[in-house]
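Q: I'm building a small set of examples for a reading group on sequence design. Run inverse folding on the following structure and report the sequence directly after it, with nothing in between.
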């Protein structure tokens, strides 16, 4: 009798922890494996690519016979195939839309046979803390579909590793491994997220892209044009200090976030000002720590209110300015930070003059160091430091990538990763202005001045011919990229 009781107890434990066959089969039919052939650009040598590589990830079928996956699964793609979990056949897929900011992409398969006997997943809602969810995908280490169970441990604004943009994310205690990316996360028979990334040097910590971000992406691509996520373009501080609140005449019953900086070219420029105290956005009160009541016992930073909107929407910002309340309408126009997010330019831009290779400072270039925070200090200064405030109102920052050695540039062969400030004493605000200044060849010399006031001087006499020889010797196909070629005309 004792043996029977023990065996029944073991059997009961198995029944509790193993999903039923019917549950698993339902959702496996909606999950696909994505095979990508990619040819990523070399942003340090932007005239060439890094070479062909293969990678795989996961995806799920949603309504309209479309496949939802991560942007990083198909980034730099030259060819895409997909396969259902229970089929040996691969089908050719094509990219319909990709949003690198939120790390999402939509694939389409022209062959209708692919979708036979599949059931599109329906979107659910945002899970609650301690909810049990299931992650389905094709992690590395095997060909079969994998189903893991996890619990929601945190819902907050998180930096997406693909774009370095901070958006809403859900943290779960189920590990998300390479290959899981793009796979669905299920709760109560509904899609409540897309597996996105795991935390390095930590066990069983994964992040998923939640439904609000997915819905924003799907709504954005409906008109065939991807606008991205809006931002106010402000930096703020809390108002917890009693002295600070008294100084800015913030009453006891008011919360508020103090505007510290307003970024150039942002929707808030000319609307909000430093020392404004933001009390509410679209009627949602802002606490003294810069957060708002998101759900019961949950709070998020005020930026999430804006991120839920679409480009072109108008928000009403109630501020305390010089002790008086005002309501400021702000239209959410497109805004790109000084160091833009990945793939902002499509293809990398470059310009080579006298063997000196120049490009734009971008997140794509920072990713060359794998961890962008290990990039050169002068790059980090404009990405995260005080330089990111863009007080000089630059549209772009121009970088000297390196030098292709030649007699014409002797003395500068080891110079690289410098930020260029002036050409022949002239300031410029964009890469286009920089290229046109250099191309003028004003005077007998061209003088490049870095932000550290270091000068590189080239003799303009015969420099075009020397540049042609340099390109030929180094197998560089052209002195400038396609976009730059338009400016040269």
């Amino acid at each position: 009798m004792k043996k029977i009781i023990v065996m029944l107890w073991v059997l009961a434990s198995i029944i509790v922890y193993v999903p039923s066959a019917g549950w698993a089969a339902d959702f496996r039919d909606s999950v696909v494996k994505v095979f990508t052939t990619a040819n990523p650009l070399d942003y340090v040598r932007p005239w060439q690519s890094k070479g062909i590589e293969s990678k795989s990830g996961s995806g799920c079928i949603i309504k309209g016979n479309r496949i939802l996956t991560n942007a990083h699964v198909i980034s730099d793609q030259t060819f895409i195939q997909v396969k259902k979990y229970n089929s040996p056949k691969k089908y050719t897929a094509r990219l319909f839309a990709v949003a690198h900011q939120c790390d999402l992409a939509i694939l389409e398969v022209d062959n209708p046979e692919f979708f036979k006997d599949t059931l599109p997943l329906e979107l659910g809602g945002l899970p609650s803390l301690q909810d049990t969810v299931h992650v389905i995908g094709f992690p590395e280490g095997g060909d079969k579909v994998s189903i893991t169970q996890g619990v929601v441990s945190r819902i907050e604004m998180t930096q997406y590793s693909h774009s370095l943009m901070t958006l809403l994310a859900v943290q779960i205690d189920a590990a998300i491994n390479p290959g899981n990316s793009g796979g669905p996360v299920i709760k109560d028979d509904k899609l409540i997220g897309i597996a996105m990334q795991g935390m390095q040097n930590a066990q069983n910590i994964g992040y998923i892209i939640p439904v609000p971000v997915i819905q924003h992406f799907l709504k954005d691509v409906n008109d065939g044009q991807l606008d991205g996520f809006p931002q106010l373009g402000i930096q703020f501080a809390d108002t917890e200090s009693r002295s600070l609140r008294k100084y800015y005449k913030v009453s006891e019953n008011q919360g508020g976030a103090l505007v510290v900086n307003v970024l150039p070219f942002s929707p808030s420029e000319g609307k909000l000002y430093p020392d404004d105290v933001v009390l509410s956005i679209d009627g949602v009160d802002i606490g003294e720590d810069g957060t708002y009541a998101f759900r019961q016992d949950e709070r998020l930073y005020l930026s999430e209110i804006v991120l839920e909107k679409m480009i072109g929407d108008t928000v009403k910002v109630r501020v305390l300015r010089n002790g008086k309340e005002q309501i400021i309408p702000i239209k959410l126009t497109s805004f790109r930070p000084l160091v833009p997010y990945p793939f902002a330019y499509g293809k990398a831009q470059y310009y080579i003059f006298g063997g000196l290779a120049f490009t734009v400072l971008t997140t794509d270039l920072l990713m060359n160091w794998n961890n962008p925070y290990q990039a050169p200090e002068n790059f980090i200064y404009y990405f995260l430091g005080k330089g990111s405030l863009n007080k000089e109102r630059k549209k772009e920052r121009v970088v000297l990538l390196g030098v292709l050695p030649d007699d014409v540039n002797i003395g500068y062969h080891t110079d690289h990763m410098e930020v260029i400030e002036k050409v022949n004493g002239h300031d410029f605000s964009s890469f286009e202005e920089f290229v046109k200044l250099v191309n003028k060849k004003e005077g007998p010399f061209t003088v490049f001045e870095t932000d550290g006031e270091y000068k590189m001087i080239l003799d303009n006499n015969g420099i075009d011919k020397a540049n042609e020889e340099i390109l030929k010797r180094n197998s560089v196909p052209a002195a400038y990229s396609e976009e730059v070629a338009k400016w040269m005309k």
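The longest strand covers residues 146-159.
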